[in-house]
Every structure is written in C-alpha cells, then in structure tokens.
Amino acid sequence: MEGTIRGRTASSMPGLDIAEQRAWQHFLESALTLYATLNRELVDVHGLMLNDVRLLDLLANSATGSARMGDLADELMSLPSKVTRQIHRLETQRLVRRCSTPEDGRGVLATITDDGRDVLRVAMCTYGDGVRTHFLDRLSRPQTVAIGENCRRIGAALKSDETPARVGRVGTT
After folding, report:
1. Which of 8, 66, 78, 165 is surrounded by the most beta carbons within 10 Å?
2. 49, 41 in Cβ contact below 8 A?
3. In sequence order, which residues have a C-beta less than 8 Å from that of residue 3 and are 6 or more positions away?
4. 67 in Cβ contact with 171 (< 8 Å)
C-alpha cells in the first residue's frame, strides 16, 4: 500500500513512519542541544570543551594516567588529527603532556598532569551539575532508568558491529 510502512503512515524520511521519524528527530535535537548546552557551560566556566573534559577523564581513569593517541581518538569517536590538535591545545595549558611510547618509541602517549587532574576535578562538578539540571531533573526516576537502558541497548548493538580492536582500548596501555 502506497504511503504506508507496515500499515503505518509513511513520513518524509524514507523507511520511517511518522511516529518513528518524530521519535528520531526529538532524540537527535535533544541530544545535540544538551551537548551544546553542556559544552557552552564548560567553556564559559573552565575554558574547556566537553570533549576536553571527556579526554581528561579518560586519561585520569586509565590505569597509568596515559593513553595512546589513537586509542583516545577511538574512544572519543574522533579523527586522530583532531585529537592531536586537542592534545596540543591541552598541552599548552599544561593539562596533559606527550611522550613516545616506551615499547616502540614510535607511538605517542598522552598523559594527564597534576594540573590536569585539578582542573578536571572542578570541571566534573560543573559537568555533573549540568547533567542534573538539563537532563536528569527533567525526567522521573523510571524515565531516567528507561532512557539509560534504551541507550545502553542501542550503544551495545552499535559496538557489536565494530571490530574488536577498536572497542575499549583506553586504559590498557
């Protein structure tokens, strides 16, 4: 039947019905707006972007306080060249330092500094407050649990499609 998908009214997005398209659009708009809001707050208060906080947090929570640049790019779902520029910027702020890997000397490790840990500790408070204010406080506890579980399921399915070498490498350096 023309104009329907599985008996439902088709949307302007091929392959989706109207309810599916609306759900996707609401999710995407809210996720992007939340990211932009948290990013703006972190820049305004700490001069750090959300991805900077995520990178510093990855380093701080790794076993050695260090990670290979390529592993950071994988974990941040970013291009290696973008992470290199990000690390350079954080290095000029003395929040991280770079060195060659001890194993082969060709790879590059990023290591969080004591200043980086101090700045991260304070920025995580702003980040946590923002998550509470702009995300958690807008949902009931059952809604929070449901959205968390649904996002976990989506993320797990997407990660199972990736090659094993790209999943979960930070912290194993």
Report:
1. 66
2. no
3. 9, 10
4. yes
- Compute the mean pLDDT over every residue in the chain, rounded to the nearest whole number: 89
For the chain, give the longest Cα–Cα distance: 64
Rounded Cα–Cα distance for residues 104 and 155 (Å) = 33
pLDDT of residue 2: 47
Taking only the tens place, the pLDDT of each residue in 160-172 is: 887 555 445 554 4
| Helices and strands (H and E) in the chain: how many | 6, 5
* CA separation for the pair 83, 56 (Å, rounded): 12
The pLDDT, as a whole number, for residue 173 is 39
Instruction: Enumerate the domain spans of the chain.
Output: 26-163
Token couple for 129: 């407050």
Can you tell me the distance from the alpha carbon of 173 to that of 164, in angstroms, rounded to the nearest whole number?
16
Domain 26-163 class?
mainly alpha
CA–CA separation, 86 and 55 (whole Å): 9
Place of tokens 């109207």: 18
Backbone angles phi, psi at 100, to 5 degrees: -75, 150
Tokens of 62: 């790794």
Beta bridge mates, 98: 110
Tens-place pLDDT, residues 98-111: 988 777 767 889 99
